């Protein structure tokens, strides 16, 4: 037999042997691959891609960007909980005032920030909103916004919202609440809506009772729903403050004056505030509440 033919036979035998080994081990390889893939799924705990910190390189790059791009990048990083992002927003916010616009990507990021589960992220969004509209955080600016709201009906919704934002940033929050409450009693639905939105943005204890009242009594279903959202998830109340509304919400469950839709929102608000999934049976909610420690304080409508 020729030497070349013998070599080809050896090579063919080796290839066949390798193929048998691969076939025999394919289940192991597939299992290993599946295990690797399952490390990154939509289930389980978060899997960090990298440390959530702003690198020195990124900070240097930010300094070369125009203010609008800086604000967008830092708000995106704040939404994703990057250490240092909120600090840089606070450091640069005064310099950005009047040089950034609440439009495009920044507006989209603002809307995302205001739904964040971290109130610090929402606060960063508020700071950028005020800077984009060149609104100073002073009592004098609050006076100016209120005067414009009184005089100009066209800009009233935006002005009422800004009053709430300024109150949240510590600018006469009680005076801001008193002013918003006055407009929340007007017959115009749009005006009442934005007054209620402003009250939800204040984030003070004194705003809870009015929000409960609007949730229960406002003639507009839309405004009742917005007041419920302000109590449950939206706005600037913290978890402790929202929890103080639970006793009144429990009373709403059996209130015959509420229509079926508003009663549904009561149970949704209870679920959002408590983190419990107890459905719409008042007995389950009372049993859950009975096991809670006594609630300090009382909310009166």
Outline the structure in words.
This protein is an all-alpha fold and 301 residues long. It has three domains: 56-132, no CATH class; 137-202, Leucine-rich Repeat Variant, CATH 1.25.10; 204-301, no CATH class. It is 67% helix and 0% strand. Helix 9 packs antiparallel against helix 10 (189-202).
Rg, nearest Å: 29 Å
DSSP E strands, number: 0
Structural category: mainly alpha
Strand content: under 5%
Which terms summarize this structure?
301 residues, disordered C terminus, 16 helices, mainly alpha, single chain
SSE diagram, text form:
Elements: H1 3-37, H2 56-63, H3 67-79, H4 85-96, H5 104-113, H6 119-132, H7 139-151, H8 156-168, H9 173-183, H10 189-202, H11 208-217, H12 221-232, H13 239-243, H14 246-252, H15 260-274, H16 282-290
Helix pairs in contact: 3-4, 3-5, 3-6, 4-6, 5-6, 7-8, 8-9, 8-10, 9-10, 10-12, 11-12, 12-15, 14-15
């Amino acid at each position: 037999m020729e030497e070349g033919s013998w070599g080809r036979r050896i090579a063919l035998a080796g290839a066949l042997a390798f193929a048998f080994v691969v076939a025999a081990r394919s289940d192991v390889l597939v299992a290993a691959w599946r295990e690797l893939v399952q490390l990154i799924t939509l289930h389980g705990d978060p899997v960090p891609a990298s440390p959530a910190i702003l690198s020195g390189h990124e900070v240097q790059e930010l300094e070369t960007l125009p203010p609008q791009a800086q604000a967008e990048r830092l708000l995106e990083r704040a939404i994703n909980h990057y250490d240092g992002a909120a600090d840089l927003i606070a450091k640069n916010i005064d310099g950005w005032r009047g040089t950034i616009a609440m439009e495009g990507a920044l507006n989209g990021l603002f809307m995302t920030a205001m739904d964040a589960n971290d109130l610090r992220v929402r606060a960063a969004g508020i700071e950028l909103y005020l800077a984009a509209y060149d609104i100073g955080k002073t009592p004098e600016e609050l006076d100016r916004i209120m005067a414009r709201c009184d005089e100009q009906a066209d800009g009233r919704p935006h002005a009422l919202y800004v009053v709430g934002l300024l109150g949240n940033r510590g600018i006469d929050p009680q005076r801001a609440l008193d002013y918003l409450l006055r407009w929340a009693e007007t017959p115009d639905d749009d005006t009442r809506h934005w007054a209620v939105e402003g009250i939800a943005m204040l984030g003070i204890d004194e705003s809870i009772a009015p929000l409960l009242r609007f949730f229960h009594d406002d003639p507009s279903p839309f405004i009742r729903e917005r007041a419920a959202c302000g109590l449950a998830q939206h706005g600037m109340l913290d978890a402790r403050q929202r929890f103080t509304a639970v006793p009144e919400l429990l009373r709403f469950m059996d209130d015959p004056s509420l229509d079926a839709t508003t009663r549904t929102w009561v149970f949704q608000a209870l679920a959002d505030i408590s983190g419990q999934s107890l459905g719409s049976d008042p007995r389950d909610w009372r049993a859950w509440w009975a096991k809670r420690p006594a609630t300090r304080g009382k909310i009166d409508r």
